Amino acid sequence: MHVLQSAIIFALSLSARVTSAKNDVSVRVPAYPNTTLSSLDHIQDELGSKLSPKAEIYSPNNSSYRTATTRWNGAMQPNFAAVVVPANTEDVATTVRYANKHNVPFLAVNRGYGSSVDMNRLRRGISIYLHNLDSIIIAADKQSAVLGGGVYAAQLIKTLAKSGKVAATTAVTCVGVAGAGLGGGMGMYQGLYGLMADNILEMTIVTADGSIITANDRQNADLFWAMRGAGHNFGIVTSYVYKIYDAIPTWYAASYQYTEDKLEAVFTELNKLNENGEQPKELTTYTVFANNPSVSDK
User: Which burial class, exposed, middle or buried, applies to 207 when counting CB atoms under 10 A from its CB (0-12, 13-18, 19+)?
Assistant: First the structure.
């Protein structure tokens, strides 16, 4: 699923302090009710042996752990005992089944932009870090592409540009495509091509029990409908088919800043563009409220 920022959490936990015999460092590991998971070594040894050769597992004392767990919003930080970096869909399914077996909460992560307040309720769980599921395969007819669940906007934009194509993406290019799309997904092309969710044609999903299914207009159609806009907790999207379009040769962009006393006049004019749905489809507007100390300290 932040894909993306997709997430499934099965259990909350207390934590116990133990010592890892393998690296002789004191770390916090899960202490869940009825769990059979006793240490980080258990994750490395038992789960690691079930994953594909290219999959990885990071413990908190691994140098890659910090990079994999850093999030955009530091106030909404889940807490992980380990990070699993799957190499394929089956690795994701295997990790979900392992977490269920041992009563361990887990969260699928792409770029770490999800900011729900529920994020920091996950304590000492497993992160399923989709970073390496980053393939982009353009279809022969160049009307769609198959994207890995870990693809983010900048990757997609650069890859498609080489073929003279574009896709609906977020305005901020460091955000994961699937995570934003599962929540609807606004972007610069929305007037022309709709929301990002409108551009998803099919998904490969790992469900809560670790099953791998396909969802589209013909298979699991109800789930497919639900996931395009409210999809973050229905399953983990490991790949999906996404619409692409011919690139538009020329774009114009401008940024304007207004002080607080001008806001009513500005929004009066912006609202005129939206009256009766007459805003030109080529025009997209974004509004950001920010405190700029260089303008005013109030």
Answer: middle
Q: With a cut of 70, say whether residue 274 has pLDDT above it.
A: yes
Q: Phi and psi for 88 in degrees, rounded to 5?
A: -160, 175
Residue 145, strand partner residues: 138, 242
β-strand partners of 127: 83, 107
* Predicted model pTM: 0.80
List, for residues 84-98, the tens digit of each pLDDT value.
999 999 999 999 999
Per-residue confidence (pLDDT) for residue 51, from 0 to 100: 96
Higher pLDDT: 32 or 154? It is 154
Average pLDDT of the segment spanning 38-45: 71
Tens digit of each residue's pLDDT (9 = 90 or more) over 189-232: 998 999 999 999 999 999 999 999 999 999 999 999 999 988 77
DSSP class per residue in 131-166: GG---EEE-TTSSEEEEETT-BHHHHHHHHHTTTEE
Distance CA 230, CA 215 (A): 14
Angle at 42 between CA 40 and CA 48, to 5 degrees: 100
Question: If we measure between CA atoms, which residue out of 216, 233, 220 comes closest to residue 106?
Answer: 233
DSSP state of 232: T
Token digits for 106?
């887990």
Q: Read out DSSP for 54-105?
A: T-EEE-TTSHHHHHHH--S-TTS---EEEEEE-SSHHHHHHHHHHHHHTT--
Query: How far apart are the C-alpha atoms of 73 and 175, rounded to whole Å?
Result: 13
Distance between CA atoms of 235 and 211, rounded to whole angstroms? 10
